[in-house]
Specification:
Chain lengths: 333, 577
């Protein structure tokens, strides 16, 4: 009936929605994708849920990049109030971000999932979160920065991933004491595995920052080409005023990952502190080229330009920073 | 000698007309005491030390914020403490701010009273609250001292969650609540009285009358805070992002006991924030006082004063809105004074753990540089949660040091984190060249005591040239920390009396030059830290120098006064010519 109706009235968005959900439930994902694509092109008021369903359909069709893009738009526009639907959207967005190399965003999404579960189970929030094995697995993958979907984990990886997942779930619930116990166990069992020391280091940044430095250094020993650990070290040394040490790691990170804008930001900020304003501007201009939508890159460049006395350019970068930050803040809200 | 001094000072502190008959241009009321009261060694860099004298002082003030399971946001923020010589006897008295019952937000029990303690000059204090009429009635936060009517008697403004209050000092040990007549009780936004967290007095238009700046925090209603869970189960005070911001308020003094809200016409209300500490200084040297406001998890404000008529927020362009990584931090206490003796006021404000306490050096061209890391402050402050703070030369070596009152925001933080609610306070010694060292560990046992500190104020309680500290503890006893730093460094203090300028000389700029040609700078301002009001006298450490070669005062009226060869280790009273 909906097929006929949408043929007769191709602008009837509600019809496309119902048709899409019917196809989706029948696991006819290609047809579901097409129906939701029609829906988002015709629906003017609330297209967010349609983008989310489009993303879930693409996921089933294993076109993961398209799936993530659609899910991200859906989240930005709002996906309604149905708790189960929100859970699924955030969960799939999380595992896709982890798989496609954005573990920090993955952790944000999965933390929202955990918080929603906790809020719905006020008597025993931790038990409720721990009962969701898929969520723990997803947390573990993202926290260990394993660029895989849960279904692609090897059998050997699974115990480690669950151990990390439990720790990350506790971090999400802000029970950092229990999280540290889990993390210590994780490090005791899997210290030679990629991502384990890094994960503990990130945790320690908020608890005992000086100890975090040791963990990031261990991560580099385990994974000699690791960029993220070097960037963390560079930023930590920047924060504490140890600029020469920081610059060493930042330069290494830029060498290993010249497309990573954060590495350039760290490097540029360190050059600035050392008084090499030209070098700073060079790195920070590169950061802005690589990530024109990053408020941080524009802010750092504005500081360097200001230091160099290039006031109008600095003002331009500050304005861009403020514009992008306002957008990011709005998205956060 | 002390009695003689008191008599003299009482005389000159009578109303202005009387005073002017006795003093022409400058009165140097000698108050010579032995700087080395504790048997100093000949060491200009000896350790800064404090002793807790609360137990024998007679001060037993407890801040009671009425913590409830609903985790009302104000419960974690009651802070205010002021140093005020309310009876003009030459000694600073203490005024503490207190909370109220929840949900009534009324002081329905004496345990919630604000308290005034009279300084008995012998290290003890007497509670004179009831006689003074200062107990208050609502849920109070911060305090600001200023002589708004220029009668020579300092008045009190209390910033509050409920109605703010202005108490006029009657000069006989009592105060009159003149809030309604003055029109400063209810700064409004969208039809509701705003939650005021702090306030400060300044003369923004240099007309000789003190105006009033009020920091307003966020939109809030009792028992309607969102539910924020930590550890997945424990209700905790919510992050400020869950509350809507507010504009600050500026009241212009009409000179007849009334004020006009000029927030809109001056542009102050254009900027929304979650304002806490406020500091005043003239960062660009144009003769008009600018305003720095530390905002909680929102960009800070730096209101540039456009010739006493309007303000523009230049924080972003000046580089003080965010920290060096482009993040807005939990701005709490704020100080706006020159720390590197270059004549340009710098900004230092507190924040919470993992943010560091940002230090912005005034470069002199309208730009401030975030020097937190290179100053040595980043590492030690990284894991601290700071509230009120203060800038003062504790060891009289000629460099202003830093003090911060610390304590975590969350009373149940230890239940889901490795952090603790109680933290010890910290002192950072100024090593020159805008570098600092954490010297807390050497500052004596009193400085090692962990509590949920909130308020802090600095001043010379004993007129001995050593700057003392009074701190408040949330739901605990306030502490008086006497400065017992032992060295042979010299000092000088100036009590300024305005004639064309406002009587307290708030906003006056001082430049002290010693025989070696080096200079120090400070401003007369009672505004300090978070919700605090400090010693209005300007204090300078002189190191080995026994005289001030030259004192230059730039009065708010524009008058420039130069005095030479002033002896050290005295409190000098300077009257505006």
């Amino acid at each position: 009936m909906y097929e006929r109706a949408t043929k007769l009235r191709p602008n009837w968005s509600e019809g496309w929605w119902h048709l899409g959900t019917l196809f989706f439930d029948a696991q006819r994902f290609g047809e579901a994708r097409d129906a939701f694509a029609h829906f988002v092109s015709t629906e003017r008021k609330q297209p967010g849920p349609g983008f989310a369903m489009l993303g879930l359909s693409e996921f089933q069709l294993t076109d993961y990049a398209k799936a993530l893009a659609a899910l991200e738009i859906g989240i930005k526009l709002g996906v309604g109030t149905d708790a189960a639907f929100i859970h699924d959207v955030l969960f799939y967005d999380g595992i896709l971000n982890a798989q496609l190399g954005e573990p920090e965003i993955a952790l944000q999404r999965l933390t929202l999932v955990a918080n929603r579960i906790a809020a719905a189970n006020p008597e025993a929030p931790k038990d409720a979160v721990f009962a969701d094995a898929k969520l723990l697995e997803a947390f573990g993958i993202a926290a260990l920065r394993i660029p895989k979907l849960p279904s692609n984990l090897t059998a050997e990886q699974i115990p480690m991933v669950f151990q990390a997942g439990r720790a990350q779930a506790l971090i999400a619930l802000q029970d950092r004491v229990a999280a540290e116990t889990e993390l210590k166990q994780l490090v005791a069992l899997y210290a030679s595995e990629h991502g384990v020391n890094y994960m503990y280091g990130v945790f320690l940044l908020k608890e005992h920052p000086p100890l975090a430095i040791d963990e990031f250094r261990r991560e580099i020993e385990v994974s000699p080409s690791d960029t993220a650990a070097r960037i963390q070290l560079a930023l930590e040394f920047l924060r504490t005023g140890d600029y020469e040490q920081g610059l060493k790691y930042a330069k290494d990170a830029v060498g290993l990952a010249p497309e990573n804008f954060v590495a350039h930001v760290a490097c540029g900020r360190l050059w600035l502190e050392i008084g090499k304003t030209d070098r700073a501007m060079q790195e920070l201009r590169m950061a802005v080229r690589l990530a024109p939508g990053s408020p941080d890159a524009h802010f750092a460049l504005s500081r360097a330009l200001s230091e160099a006395g290039r006031r109008s350019e600095a003002a331009h970068e500050r304005a861009e920073f403020e514009r992008l930050k306002a957008l990011a803040d709005a998205a956060d809200r | 000698m002390t009695d003689e001094f008191n008599g003299s000072l009482l005389g000159v502190l009578n109303p202005l007309s009387v005073m002017l008959k006795r003093i022409s241009t400058v009165a140097v009321t000698g108050f010579l005491i032995t700087a080395n009261v504790f048997g100093a060694q000949a060491d200009h860099s000896s350790t800064i030390r404090f002793e807790d004298i609360t137990a024998r002082s007679g001060v037993n003030f407890v801040t009671d914020s009425c913590p409830t399971p609903n985790k009302n946001q104000p419960e974690t923020m009651v802070s205010g403490v002021a140093l005020i010589d309310y009876d003009n006897d030459g000694y600073l008295d203490l005024f503490f701010i207190n909370g109220a019952a929840i949900p009534s937000l009324k002081k329905d029990s004496p345990k919630y009273y604000n308290r005034l303690y009279h300084n008995n000059h012998d290290g003890t204090f007497t509670d004179v609250t009831e006689k003074a009429g200062l107990a208050g009635d609502g849920y109070d936060m911060g305090v600001a001292i200023g002589d708004f009517d220029n009668d020579g008697w300092p008045d009190i403004y209390v910033a509050s969650v409920t109605k703010n209050h202005l108490y006029r000092n009657n000069g006989d040990g009592t105060f009159t609540d003149v809030t309604d007549k003055a029109g400063v009780g209810s700064p409004m936004y969208k039809g509701k009285k705003m939650w005021s967290a702090a306030a400060g007095w300044l003369d923004y238009n240099n007309d000789g009358k003190l105006d009033l700046f009020v920091s307003n925090y966020c939109r809030w209603e009792v028992n309607k805070d969102p539910v924020c869970l930590s550890g997945g189960r424990l209700r905790a005070y919510c992050h400020p992002k869950f509350y809507e911001p507010l504009p600050s308020t500026l009241y212009r003094n009409n000179g007849d006991g009334t004020f006009t809200d000029v927030s809109d016409e001056t542009g102050i209300s254009k900027k929304l924030g979650k304002a806490m500490g406020v500091g005043f200084n003239d960062y660009d040297g144009d003769g008009f006082i600018d305003i720095f406001v530390a905002n909680d998890n929102m960009p800070n404000s730096l209101f540039h004063n456009l010739k006493g008529k309007t303000f523009e927020d230049v924080a972003m362009d000046a580089g003080v809105a965010y920290t060096e990584n482009g993040k807005a931090v939990s701005g709490m206490g704020a100080e706006f004074r020159d720390l590197d003796n270059d004549g340009r006021p710098d900004i230092w404000h507190t924040a919470t753990e993992l943010e560091t306490f940002p230090l912005f050096r005034n470069r002199g061209d309208g730009i401030f540089l975030d020097v937190t890391a290179r100053s040595g402050l980043a590492r030690p402050t990284l894991e601290m949660s700071g509230w009120s703070n203060g800038v003062a030369d504790f060891d009289n070596d000629g460099w202003k040091d830093l003090f911060v009152a610390r304590g975590n925001v969350l009373d149940n933080i230890a239940e889901f984190s490795n952090r603790t609610y109680a933290e010890p306070n910290s002192i950072f010694r100024n090593l020159g060249k805008m570098t600092f060292a954490d010297v807390t560990a050497q500052a004596g046992p009193a400085m090692q005591v962990a509590e949920p500190y909130r308020g802090a104020v600095i001043g010379d309680l004993f007129n001995d040239g050593h700057l003392d500290i009074v701190v408040t503890v949330l739901n605990g006893k306030a502490r008086i920390l006497r400065n017992v730093t032992s060295n042979d460094n010299n000092w000088v203090m100036f009590r300024l009396v305005g004639s064309k300028s406002n009587r307290m000389a708030i906003g006056a700029q001082l430049k002290v030059t010693t025989e070696d040609g080096n200079s120090q700078y400070d401003i007369v301002s009672t505004s300090a830290g978070y919700g605090a009001s400090r010693d209005p006298r300007a204090h300078f450490g002189l190191g080995r120098f026994k005289t001030v070669k030259q004192l230059e005062v730039r009065w708010p009226s524009g008058v420039r006064q130069v005095l030479t060869d002033l002896p050290a280790n005295q409190i000098h009273q300077i009257v505006e010519p």
